Amino acid sequence: MTIILKTERLTKKFGGLTAVDHVNMTLSKGELRCIIGPNGCGKSTLFNLITGTYKPTSGRIAFKSKDITGKPVHIIGRMGIGRKFQVPGIFNQLTVYDNIRVPFFRDQRRSLFLKPRKDSDIHQKITALLQKINLDDKACLPAIHLAHGEKQWLEIGMVLARRPQLMLLDEPTAGMTAAETRKTAQLIRNISREEKMTILVIEHDIGFVREIASRITVLYKGAVFKEGSYETIQSDEAVRKIYLGKSR
Amino acid sequence: MKSDISTIKSTDISMQRSVFWQPRPAWIAMGLAAILVLFPMTQNDYWIVQLTQLMVYGIFAMSLSLVWGYGGILCFGHAVYFGMGAYIYTLIVKGMIPGFSGILATSIAGLLTAVLCVSLFAVVVGYFLFYGRLKGPYLGIVTLAIAVIAERIAVDWYYIGGYNGLFSIPPFSVAGYEFITPIALFYFVLASSAIAYLLLTHIVQSPFGAILRAIRDNEARAESFGYNSAQHKIITFAIGAAVAALSGALFAIVTEFVSPTLIGFGLSTEVLIWVALGGKEVILASFLGALLVRTLETYLSELMAYYWILFLGVFFVAAVILFPKGIFGRWLSD
Ligand SMILES: Nc1ncnc2c1ncn2[C@@H]1O[C@H](COP(=O)(O)OP(=O)(O)O)[C@@H](O)[C@H]1O
Ligand SMILES: [Mg+2]
User: Fold this and answer.
1) Which of A46, A148, A181, B5 has the highest local Cβ count within 10 Å?
2) Mind listing the pLDDT tens digit for each residue in B99-150?
C-alpha cells in the first residue's frame, strides 16, 4: 500500500507547553483513520501543522513523498490536502450554492474577472454535491442561516469540491444531535468508499467512532498513546482510563 | 455535458442570483442614471455644479466600497489615493513635472498617469500590508499613519503649493474641446461615474468578487482552497486606488484647485462615514451614501451654523444602529 502522509518526530511547542510531542504517524492511501483523545491533547494542533497553519518546532511532514514542512497554507491546499475546521469554516454571507462554488473557481481557465460560461458542467457538479450533503433545497440561503449541523455538512461539501487526496475533518459532529451524528458518520463512510479518498477524522464522540469502525490513533498529552482497531482500543485498559472513562 | 438554461430548474435560481446574478439594483441604477441624465435640463447652473461635485465624491465612495465592503479591508487612509490622484493630475497638466511636456502634459495623459501611478503605489503599500499579514486595528492604524504622513508632506512641500495648494488648473480638454461649462463638466463626471460603477459592479459579480467576499468572510478557509489572500487583497487595493485616483483627478478638474486636505485623515474618515451610512456591501449604496451625507452637511451647516456637526454625529450613530447594512444597502442588495 502506498503511503500518502507521514509525520516524523513532529513537535510543536507553545512557550513551555508541548502541544504535539514527537508524533510519528503514517497514513496509507484510501485509509479512513480516527484520531481520538481528551480535550487539549493536541489534535487540532496536529491538523494545523499538517495544513501549514502552524510551523512545527521540529520534525518533518511528508505528503505524497514530498516534504511539506513549513509550506504556506495555500500551497499545501493546492497540493491536495483539504481541511474541515472545528468551528464551521464556511463563508457566512455567501449563499450555500456559492460556498460550494468558490472552491471550483480554481479550475476556471478563463480570467477570474470574466463570468463563467453558463454551459459549464460545474453547475452539475455543485448540484450533485449539494444532494450528497442534503442541502440541495437550501441552495439559495445565505450560509449564516443554516442550522449548526447543516453548516458542518456544508463545510464537508466545500472540502469535497476541491477533490482533495487527503481530507482532514476536525470534530465534524460537534454540537450535533444523535441522529445528525449518525447521518454524518454515514456520509463520511460513503465518501471514503465512493471517492476512494484518504480521510483523517478527529472525533470526540465514541458512538461516531464505533459507527465509522476504522483504525484509531489515540493521542494523549501531544504524543501517540496507542494505535489499533476499534475493538483493541475499546478494550484497552490504559486508554479507557485516560479517555473512554471520562468521555461525555 | 451542456445544459440549456431553460432545462435547469430549482437550484438554478441560486446560480442566477449568486454569481450570475442579475440584480434588481440594475433597475435602480438605470432609473438613477435616467434622472441624472435629465437633471441639467431642469436645474440651474448652481445645482448642476453642486451635483457634479457630489458625483465626484460618489465615485470616491464606490472605490472604498470595493476595498472595505467586499475586500473587508478597513482602510483609514483611502483619501491618500484621492489626493495623490488630484495632485499628480494637477502637476502634470500644469507642466510642473520635468520631462512631462507636449503630449505627456495633456489632460488625458494626466488622468491616465495619475490613475496608473496611484495604483502602483497601492500595490507597493498593499504588498507590505498584506504579506505582512496586518489585519483589523493594526491595518487601520498603519493606513491612518500613512494618511497623516501624506498630509504633512503636502503641507510642507513648497513646490506642490504647500499649505495653500495649487490653483488655476487648466480646463480638461480632448482634441481641442475644452470642458468648461457646468453642463459639459456634469456629463463628463456622470459618464465617469457610470464607467466606475459598471467596472466595480462587474468586478464584484465576477468569480474574483466571490472569492474576495469569501476571503472577507473566512480567510483561513479561502486559503485552504488554494487562494492567495494577500494577492487578492493587493489586486483589490490597486483597483480601489485607481478608482479613487480617478475621482481625485476629477475633483481637480471640476474645482480647478487642490489642497492638502484632499489627501489627509479628515477626508479618509469622511468617506468611511459616507460608505458606512450608504451601505458598504453595495457599490451603488455607497455612491448614494456620499450624495446623501454631503447634501445633509451642506443643508445643516447653512441651517444651524456650528451645531450641524453635532446633529450629523447623532444621525450617524442612529443610522448605524438602525441600519447596520446601510441606509441604501438594505433595499439595494437582493
Ligand atoms: N495558538 C496557540 N497558542 C498557544 N497555545 C495553544 C495554541 N493552540 C493550541 N494551544 C494549546 O495547545 C494544546 C492543544 O490544543 P488543541 O490542539 O486545540 O487540542 P485538542 O484539539 O486536542 O482539543 C492546548 O493546551 C491548547 O491550549
Ligand atoms: Mg480541537
Assistant:
1) A46
2) 888 888 899 999 999 999 999 999 999 999 999 888 888 999 999 999 999 9
Shortest CA distance to A223 belongs to which of A53, A41, A35, A75?
A: A41
d(CA B323, CA B172): 40
Name every chain A residue with its beta carbon within 8 A of the beta carbon of B11: 97, 126-127, 130, 136, 139
Rounded to 5 degrees, φ, ψ at B77 are: -130, 30
- Out of 3.40.50, 1.10.30, 1.10.3470, 1.10.357, the CATH code matching B53-332 is 1.10.3470
What residues of B are in contact with residue A118 (Cβ under 8 Å)? 5, 20
CB atoms within 10 A of CB B22: 11
The model scores a pTM over 0.95? no
| ipTM for the assembly | 0.79
Report whether A35 contacts A12 (CB < 8 A): no
Ligand 1 geometric centre to CA of A39 (Å): 9
Residue B182 CA to residue B169 CA, distance in Å, equals 16
Taking Cα atoms as reference points, which of A71, A33, A65 lies closest to residue A200? A33
> Residues A5, A61: one domain?
yes
Q: Do A77 and B221 touch (CB under 8 A)?
A: no
